[in-house]
Write a structure and sequence with these properties.
The chain has 421 residues and is mainly alpha-helical. It is built from 22 helices and no strands.
Length: 421
Protein backbone atom coordinates (compact mmCIF):
# COMPACT_ATOMS: atom_id res chain seq x y z
CA UNK A 1 0.00 0.00 0.00
CA UNK A 2 1.36 3.38 -1.02
CA UNK A 3 1.52 6.15 1.58
CA UNK A 4 0.71 9.39 -0.24
CA UNK A 5 2.41 12.46 1.24
CA UNK A 6 2.81 15.83 -0.60
CA UNK A 7 4.89 18.77 0.42
CA UNK A 8 -7.35 15.13 15.36
CA UNK A 9 -9.11 17.55 17.67
CA UNK A 10 -8.80 14.79 20.27
CA UNK A 11 -10.12 14.38 23.79
CA UNK A 12 -8.42 12.37 26.51
CA UNK A 13 -10.77 9.43 26.02
CA UNK A 14 -10.67 9.39 22.24
CA UNK A 15 -9.26 6.61 20.09
CA UNK A 16 -6.44 9.00 19.14
CA UNK A 17 -5.21 9.38 22.71
CA UNK A 18 -5.74 5.68 23.39
CA UNK A 19 -3.63 4.94 20.33
CA UNK A 20 -0.89 7.31 21.55
CA UNK A 21 -0.86 5.61 24.94
CA UNK A 22 -0.45 2.22 23.25
CA UNK A 23 2.59 3.48 21.34
CA UNK A 24 5.97 2.59 22.81
CA UNK A 25 7.84 5.54 24.37
CA UNK A 26 10.15 7.21 21.84
CA UNK A 27 13.20 5.66 23.46
CA UNK A 28 11.82 2.20 22.77
CA UNK A 29 10.61 2.71 19.21
CA UNK A 30 14.00 1.89 17.75
CA UNK A 31 14.35 -1.27 19.84
CA UNK A 32 10.93 -2.61 18.83
CA UNK A 33 11.59 -1.89 15.18
CA UNK A 34 14.95 -3.62 15.39
CA UNK A 35 13.22 -6.76 16.60
CA UNK A 36 10.91 -6.65 13.59
CA UNK A 37 13.68 -6.17 11.08
CA UNK A 38 16.16 -8.62 12.59
CA UNK A 39 13.94 -11.51 13.55
CA UNK A 40 16.62 -14.11 12.89
CA UNK A 41 18.60 -13.08 15.99
CA UNK A 42 18.57 -16.15 18.24
CA UNK A 43 19.43 -14.65 21.62
CA UNK A 44 17.57 -11.59 22.95
CA UNK A 45 19.79 -8.58 23.59
CA UNK A 46 19.03 -5.88 26.15
CA UNK A 47 20.72 -2.52 25.54
CA UNK A 48 22.40 -0.94 28.50
CA UNK A 49 20.49 2.30 27.89
CA UNK A 50 18.01 3.90 25.50
CA UNK A 51 20.84 5.91 23.99
CA UNK A 52 22.91 2.86 22.98
CA UNK A 53 23.30 2.59 19.20
CA UNK A 54 22.13 -0.84 18.01
CA UNK A 55 22.48 -0.36 14.26
CA UNK A 56 23.30 2.45 11.88
CA UNK A 57 20.68 2.58 9.14
CA UNK A 58 21.49 3.22 5.50
CA UNK A 59 20.28 6.63 4.43
CA UNK A 60 17.51 6.36 1.78
CA UNK A 61 17.37 9.08 -0.85
CA UNK A 62 14.10 10.23 0.77
CA UNK A 63 16.12 11.37 3.80
CA UNK A 64 18.16 13.90 1.85
CA UNK A 65 18.13 17.02 3.98
CA UNK A 66 17.16 15.21 7.17
CA UNK A 67 20.43 15.88 9.08
CA UNK A 68 20.10 19.63 8.54
CA UNK A 69 16.46 19.56 9.66
CA UNK A 70 17.41 17.48 12.70
CA UNK A 71 20.12 19.95 13.67
CA UNK A 72 17.73 22.87 13.21
CA UNK A 73 15.09 21.19 15.35
CA UNK A 74 17.62 20.37 18.07
CA UNK A 75 18.56 24.04 18.15
CA UNK A 76 14.91 25.13 18.27
CA UNK A 77 12.78 22.28 19.68
CA UNK A 78 9.55 24.33 19.44
CA UNK A 79 9.82 24.84 15.67
CA UNK A 80 6.70 22.98 14.47
CA UNK A 81 7.26 23.61 10.75
CA UNK A 82 10.72 22.05 10.86
CA UNK A 83 9.41 19.09 12.87
CA UNK A 84 6.67 18.50 10.31
CA UNK A 85 9.12 18.67 7.40
CA UNK A 86 11.38 16.14 9.11
CA UNK A 87 8.45 13.86 9.92
CA UNK A 88 7.39 13.91 6.26
CA UNK A 89 10.88 12.83 5.22
CA UNK A 90 10.72 9.92 7.68
CA UNK A 91 7.30 8.88 6.38
CA UNK A 92 8.56 8.95 2.80
CA UNK A 93 11.60 6.90 3.82
CA UNK A 94 9.30 4.39 5.48
CA UNK A 95 7.34 4.07 2.25
CA UNK A 96 10.46 3.83 0.11
CA UNK A 97 12.11 1.15 2.25
CA UNK A 98 9.10 -0.64 3.74
CA UNK A 99 10.80 -0.13 7.10
CA UNK A 100 8.56 0.60 10.12
CA UNK A 101 11.41 2.21 12.01
CA UNK A 102 11.04 5.40 10.02
CA UNK A 103 7.36 5.67 10.95
CA UNK A 104 8.46 5.44 14.57
CA UNK A 105 10.96 8.22 14.00
CA UNK A 106 8.22 10.37 12.50
CA UNK A 107 6.03 9.95 15.59
CA UNK A 108 8.96 10.58 17.92
CA UNK A 109 9.70 13.82 16.05
CA UNK A 110 6.09 14.96 16.45
CA UNK A 111 5.70 13.76 20.02
CA UNK A 112 5.98 17.19 21.75
CA UNK A 113 2.91 18.34 19.77
CA UNK A 114 1.04 15.02 19.86
CA UNK A 115 0.86 15.29 23.64
CA UNK A 116 -0.93 18.63 23.43
CA UNK A 117 -4.69 18.70 23.92
CA UNK A 118 -5.66 19.07 21.18
CA UNK A 119 -2.67 18.54 18.89
CA UNK A 120 -2.39 20.88 15.90
CA UNK A 121 -4.50 19.53 13.00
CA UNK A 122 -1.47 19.40 10.67
CA UNK A 123 0.32 17.18 13.19
CA UNK A 124 -2.75 14.98 13.49
CA UNK A 125 -2.77 14.47 9.72
CA UNK A 126 0.83 13.26 9.85
CA UNK A 127 0.04 11.00 12.81
CA UNK A 128 -2.88 9.57 10.82
CA UNK A 129 -0.56 8.98 7.87
CA UNK A 130 1.67 6.91 10.16
CA UNK A 131 -1.38 4.99 11.40
CA UNK A 132 -2.33 4.36 7.76
CA UNK A 133 1.17 3.05 7.07
CA UNK A 134 0.80 0.67 10.02
CA UNK A 135 -2.61 -0.47 8.71
CA UNK A 136 -4.46 1.06 11.66
CA UNK A 137 -7.13 2.32 9.31
CA UNK A 138 -10.02 2.91 11.70
CA UNK A 139 -7.77 4.93 14.00
CA UNK A 140 -6.41 6.89 11.05
CA UNK A 141 -9.94 7.70 9.91
CA UNK A 142 -11.00 8.99 13.33
CA UNK A 143 -7.90 11.17 13.65
CA UNK A 144 -8.41 12.60 10.16
CA UNK A 145 -12.10 13.31 10.63
CA UNK A 146 -11.40 15.34 13.75
CA UNK A 147 -8.43 17.16 12.23
CA UNK A 148 -10.45 18.08 9.14
CA UNK A 149 -13.41 19.21 11.22
CA UNK A 150 -11.07 21.65 12.94
CA UNK A 151 -9.28 22.73 9.75
CA UNK A 152 -11.18 21.75 6.57
CA UNK A 153 -8.64 23.22 4.15
CA UNK A 154 -5.97 20.59 4.71
CA UNK A 155 -5.65 19.03 1.27
CA UNK A 156 -3.23 16.35 2.47
CA UNK A 157 -5.76 15.34 5.12
CA UNK A 158 -8.52 14.81 2.56
CA UNK A 159 -6.20 12.81 0.28
CA UNK A 160 -5.09 10.59 3.16
CA UNK A 161 -8.71 10.06 4.19
CA UNK A 162 -9.54 9.12 0.59
CA UNK A 163 -6.71 6.57 0.54
CA UNK A 164 -7.84 5.04 3.84
CA UNK A 165 -11.43 4.78 2.58
CA UNK A 166 -10.27 3.20 -0.69
CA UNK A 167 -8.23 0.54 1.10
CA UNK A 168 -11.25 -0.37 3.20
CA UNK A 169 -13.67 -0.44 0.25
CA UNK A 170 -15.52 2.79 1.14
CA UNK A 171 -15.38 4.12 -2.41
CA UNK A 172 -18.17 6.71 -2.23
CA UNK A 173 -16.69 8.16 0.96
CA UNK A 174 -13.29 8.10 -0.68
CA UNK A 175 -14.57 9.93 -3.75
CA UNK A 176 -16.22 12.53 -1.53
CA UNK A 177 -12.90 13.11 0.24
CA UNK A 178 -11.16 13.52 -3.15
CA UNK A 179 -13.76 16.09 -4.18
CA UNK A 180 -13.27 18.03 -0.95
CA UNK A 181 -9.54 18.15 -1.70
CA UNK A 182 -10.25 19.91 -5.01
CA UNK A 183 -8.56 23.29 -5.13
CA UNK A 184 -6.36 22.40 -2.15
CA UNK A 185 -4.04 20.00 -4.01
CA UNK A 186 -2.56 19.97 -7.54
CA UNK A 187 -4.99 19.02 -10.31
CA UNK A 188 -2.91 15.93 -11.11
CA UNK A 189 -3.33 14.69 -7.53
CA UNK A 190 -7.04 15.50 -7.55
CA UNK A 191 -7.63 13.48 -10.76
CA UNK A 192 -5.50 10.56 -9.55
CA UNK A 193 -7.38 10.49 -6.26
CA UNK A 194 -10.76 10.42 -8.00
CA UNK A 195 -9.78 7.84 -10.62
CA UNK A 196 -8.48 5.50 -7.94
CA UNK A 197 -11.92 5.40 -6.33
CA UNK A 198 -13.93 5.26 -9.55
CA UNK A 199 -11.88 2.39 -11.00
CA UNK A 200 -13.06 0.11 -8.18
CA UNK A 201 -16.67 1.24 -8.18
CA UNK A 202 -18.04 0.36 -11.59
CA UNK A 203 -16.34 3.08 -13.64
CA UNK A 204 -13.06 1.46 -14.62
CA UNK A 205 -13.04 2.30 -18.33
CA UNK A 206 -13.99 5.95 -17.98
CA UNK A 207 -11.60 6.47 -15.03
CA UNK A 208 -8.69 4.96 -16.95
CA UNK A 209 -9.46 6.87 -20.14
CA UNK A 210 -9.71 10.24 -18.39
CA UNK A 211 -6.57 9.82 -16.27
CA UNK A 212 -4.43 8.35 -19.04
CA UNK A 213 -5.43 11.18 -21.38
CA UNK A 214 -4.44 13.74 -18.76
CA UNK A 215 -1.12 11.95 -18.13
CA UNK A 216 -0.27 12.15 -21.84
CA UNK A 217 -0.86 15.89 -22.23
CA UNK A 218 -0.13 17.41 -18.82
CA UNK A 219 3.18 19.13 -18.21
CA UNK A 220 5.13 19.85 -15.05
CA UNK A 221 3.44 17.24 -12.85
CA UNK A 222 5.39 17.04 -9.56
CA UNK A 223 7.46 13.82 -9.54
CA UNK A 224 5.81 12.25 -6.47
CA UNK A 225 2.34 12.83 -7.92
CA UNK A 226 3.45 11.58 -11.35
CA UNK A 227 4.64 8.31 -9.81
CA UNK A 228 1.35 7.94 -7.93
CA UNK A 229 -0.56 8.61 -11.16
CA UNK A 230 1.41 6.01 -13.14
CA UNK A 231 0.92 3.50 -10.33
CA UNK A 232 -2.85 3.93 -10.43
CA UNK A 233 -2.83 3.72 -14.24
CA UNK A 234 -0.78 0.51 -14.13
CA UNK A 235 -3.23 -1.03 -11.67
CA UNK A 236 -6.20 0.01 -13.78
CA UNK A 237 -4.62 -1.33 -16.98
CA UNK A 238 -4.09 -4.70 -15.28
CA UNK A 239 -7.69 -4.63 -14.10
CA UNK A 240 -8.64 -4.19 -17.75
CA UNK A 241 -6.36 -7.12 -18.71
CA UNK A 242 -4.18 -4.79 -20.79
CA UNK A 243 -0.81 -6.10 -19.64
CA UNK A 244 1.11 -4.19 -22.28
CA UNK A 245 -0.29 -0.89 -21.02
CA UNK A 246 0.33 -1.92 -17.42
CA UNK A 247 4.00 -2.57 -18.19
CA UNK A 248 4.25 0.77 -19.99
CA UNK A 249 2.87 2.67 -16.99
CA UNK A 250 5.22 0.84 -14.65
CA UNK A 251 8.18 1.74 -16.87
CA UNK A 252 7.09 5.38 -16.96
CA UNK A 253 6.75 5.52 -13.17
CA UNK A 254 10.08 3.83 -12.57
CA UNK A 255 11.80 6.17 -15.01
CA UNK A 256 10.76 8.96 -12.63
CA UNK A 257 11.61 7.05 -9.45
CA UNK A 258 13.70 3.95 -10.28
CA UNK A 259 13.69 2.55 -6.75
CA UNK A 260 9.98 3.00 -6.01
CA UNK A 261 9.13 0.00 -3.85
CA UNK A 262 5.44 -0.17 -4.70
CA UNK A 263 6.02 -0.13 -8.46
CA UNK A 264 8.83 -2.65 -8.10
CA UNK A 265 6.56 -5.13 -6.34
CA UNK A 266 3.71 -4.45 -8.78
CA UNK A 267 6.10 -5.28 -11.63
CA UNK A 268 7.24 -8.43 -9.83
CA UNK A 269 3.61 -9.52 -9.44
CA UNK A 270 3.09 -8.96 -13.15
CA UNK A 271 6.12 -11.16 -13.88
CA UNK A 272 4.80 -13.85 -11.51
CA UNK A 273 1.42 -13.69 -13.26
CA UNK A 274 3.19 -14.32 -16.58
CA UNK A 275 5.38 -17.05 -15.01
CA UNK A 276 8.60 -15.16 -15.74
CA UNK A 277 10.10 -16.49 -12.52
CA UNK A 278 13.73 -16.00 -13.53
CA UNK A 279 13.06 -12.31 -14.16
CA UNK A 280 11.53 -12.01 -10.69
CA UNK A 281 14.80 -13.25 -9.19
CA UNK A 282 16.82 -10.81 -11.29
CA UNK A 283 14.53 -7.96 -10.27
CA UNK A 284 14.42 -8.61 -6.51
CA UNK A 285 17.50 -10.54 -5.40
CA UNK A 286 19.28 -7.34 -4.39
CA UNK A 287 16.34 -6.27 -2.20
CA UNK A 288 16.03 -9.11 0.30
CA UNK A 289 15.85 -6.64 3.19
CA UNK A 290 12.34 -5.75 1.96
CA UNK A 291 9.65 -8.16 3.15
CA UNK A 292 7.59 -7.85 -0.03
CA UNK A 293 10.60 -8.72 -2.16
CA UNK A 294 11.42 -11.71 0.03
CA UNK A 295 7.87 -13.06 -0.34
CA UNK A 296 8.04 -12.89 -4.13
CA UNK A 297 11.54 -14.36 -4.22
CA UNK A 298 10.26 -17.34 -2.23
CA UNK A 299 7.34 -17.83 -4.64
CA UNK A 300 9.49 -17.54 -7.78
CA UNK A 301 12.37 -19.53 -6.32
CA UNK A 302 10.12 -22.42 -5.37
CA UNK A 303 8.54 -22.43 -8.84
CA UNK A 304 12.02 -22.66 -10.39
CA UNK A 305 13.33 -25.22 -7.91
CA UNK A 306 16.04 -22.71 -6.96
CA UNK A 307 18.29 -23.83 -4.08
CA UNK A 308 17.78 -20.46 -2.37
CA UNK A 309 14.00 -20.78 -2.17
CA UNK A 310 13.96 -22.52 1.24
CA UNK A 311 16.26 -19.87 2.71
CA UNK A 312 14.08 -17.06 1.40
CA UNK A 313 10.96 -18.78 2.70
CA UNK A 314 12.40 -19.28 6.18
CA UNK A 315 13.63 -15.69 6.34
CA UNK A 316 10.11 -14.51 5.49
CA UNK A 317 8.59 -16.79 8.17
CA UNK A 318 11.01 -15.37 10.74
CA UNK A 319 10.14 -11.80 9.89
CA UNK A 320 6.41 -12.45 10.00
CA UNK A 321 6.76 -14.19 13.36
CA UNK A 322 8.65 -11.21 14.78
CA UNK A 323 6.12 -8.76 13.35
CA UNK A 324 3.20 -10.67 14.84
CA UNK A 325 4.89 -10.78 18.25
CA UNK A 326 5.24 -7.00 18.05
CA UNK A 327 1.53 -6.62 17.20
CA UNK A 328 2.21 -5.53 13.62
CA UNK A 329 -1.00 -5.90 11.57
CA UNK A 330 0.43 -4.82 8.24
CA UNK A 331 1.41 -8.27 6.96
CA UNK A 332 -1.82 -10.28 7.05
CA UNK A 333 -2.34 -10.35 3.29
CA UNK A 334 1.31 -11.14 2.57
CA UNK A 335 1.30 -13.89 5.19
CA UNK A 336 -1.90 -15.36 3.75
CA UNK A 337 -0.40 -15.31 0.27
CA UNK A 338 2.82 -16.91 1.49
CA UNK A 339 0.91 -19.60 3.36
CA UNK A 340 -1.11 -20.38 0.24
CA UNK A 341 1.54 -20.14 -2.48
CA UNK A 342 4.70 -21.26 -0.65
CA UNK A 343 3.55 -23.42 2.27
CA UNK A 344 0.52 -24.69 0.30
CA UNK A 345 -1.64 -24.71 3.45
CA UNK A 346 -4.98 -23.57 2.07
CA UNK A 347 -6.88 -23.91 5.37
CA UNK A 348 -4.48 -21.70 7.30
CA UNK A 349 -4.24 -19.28 4.39
CA UNK A 350 -8.03 -19.00 4.38
CA UNK A 351 -8.09 -18.15 8.08
CA UNK A 352 -5.45 -15.46 7.57
CA UNK A 353 -7.17 -14.05 4.49
CA UNK A 354 -10.47 -13.76 6.34
CA UNK A 355 -8.77 -11.88 9.18
CA UNK A 356 -7.16 -9.59 6.62
CA UNK A 357 -10.53 -8.98 4.93
CA UNK A 358 -11.87 -7.49 8.14
CA UNK A 359 -9.29 -4.70 7.85
CA UNK A 360 -8.71 -4.06 4.16
CA UNK A 361 -10.57 -4.75 0.94
CA UNK A 362 -8.34 -4.06 -2.04
CA UNK A 363 -8.31 -6.24 -5.18
CA UNK A 364 -5.31 -8.25 -3.98
CA UNK A 365 -7.07 -8.86 -0.65
CA UNK A 366 -10.00 -10.19 -2.66
CA UNK A 367 -7.73 -12.37 -4.76
CA UNK A 368 -6.01 -14.12 -1.86
CA UNK A 369 -9.32 -14.81 -0.08
CA UNK A 370 -11.00 -16.15 -3.23
CA UNK A 371 -8.00 -18.33 -4.07
CA UNK A 372 -7.62 -19.67 -0.54
CA UNK A 373 -11.34 -20.48 -0.27
CA UNK A 374 -11.27 -22.35 -3.59
CA UNK A 375 -8.14 -24.35 -2.76
CA UNK A 376 -9.45 -25.15 0.72
CA UNK A 377 -12.63 -26.57 -0.82
CA UNK A 378 -14.71 -23.92 0.96
CA UNK A 379 -15.85 -21.53 -1.79
CA UNK A 380 -18.70 -20.32 0.42
CA UNK A 381 -16.10 -18.75 2.75
CA UNK A 382 -15.42 -16.14 0.07
CA UNK A 383 -19.08 -15.21 -0.36
CA UNK A 384 -18.55 -11.80 1.35
CA UNK A 385 -16.00 -11.00 -1.35
CA UNK A 386 -18.39 -11.98 -4.14
CA UNK A 387 -21.15 -9.83 -2.64
CA UNK A 388 -18.75 -6.92 -2.27
CA UNK A 389 -17.65 -7.23 -5.92
CA UNK A 390 -21.24 -7.40 -7.11
CA UNK A 391 -22.41 -4.51 -4.93
CA UNK A 392 -19.63 -2.26 -6.19
CA UNK A 393 -19.76 -3.47 -9.82
CA UNK A 394 -16.02 -4.00 -9.53
CA UNK A 395 -14.21 -5.10 -12.69
CA UNK A 396 -10.85 -6.86 -12.42
CA UNK A 397 -9.40 -9.36 -14.87
CA UNK A 398 -7.19 -10.77 -12.09
CA UNK A 399 -10.29 -11.86 -10.15
CA UNK A 400 -12.34 -13.11 -13.09
CA UNK A 401 -10.93 -16.67 -13.25
CA UNK A 402 -11.70 -17.23 -9.56
CA UNK A 403 -15.19 -15.81 -9.89
CA UNK A 404 -15.92 -17.85 -13.02
CA UNK A 405 -14.69 -20.99 -11.31
CA UNK A 406 -17.36 -20.59 -8.64
CA UNK A 407 -20.04 -19.84 -11.23
CA UNK A 408 -19.08 -22.92 -13.22
CA UNK A 409 -19.33 -25.08 -10.09
CA UNK A 410 -22.80 -23.74 -9.35
CA UNK A 411 -23.92 -24.40 -12.93
CA UNK A 412 -22.60 -27.97 -12.77
CA UNK A 413 -24.45 -28.53 -9.50
CA UNK A 414 -27.68 -27.22 -11.04
CA UNK A 415 -27.21 -29.52 -14.04
CA UNK A 416 -26.64 -32.52 -11.79
CA UNK A 417 -29.73 -31.69 -9.78
CA UNK A 418 -31.72 -31.40 -13.01
CA UNK A 419 -30.56 -34.85 -14.15
CA UNK A 420 -31.49 -36.44 -10.81
CA UNK A 421 -34.97 -35.03 -11.09
Amino acid sequence: MRITVFCPVATEGSAFHQWLRRRKPPGLLFIVAMLIANAAIATPFTPSSNSQVLQRLPKPAALTGAPALRASLDANPKDLKTAERLARLYIRAGQAEGDPRYLGYALATLNPWLTQDPPPPTVQVLAATVAQGEHRFSEAREILQKALAAQPRLGQGWVTLAVVNRVQGRYQEGLSACEKAAGLIPVAAELTCQAGQQALNGNLDSAYTKLSRYARVAADIPPDIAVWMQTRLAEMAWQKDDLQAARAHIRTGRAIEPDDRYLQLLYADLLLHEKHYDQVLDELKAYQARDGALLRLAIAGQALGDDRADRWAQAFRDRIAAARRAGDRSHWREFARFTLEVDHDAQQALALARTNWDNQKGPMDMHVLLAAAEQAGQPEAAEPVRRFIADNKLQDARLAPLLHSRQEQEQEQEQEQGKSQ
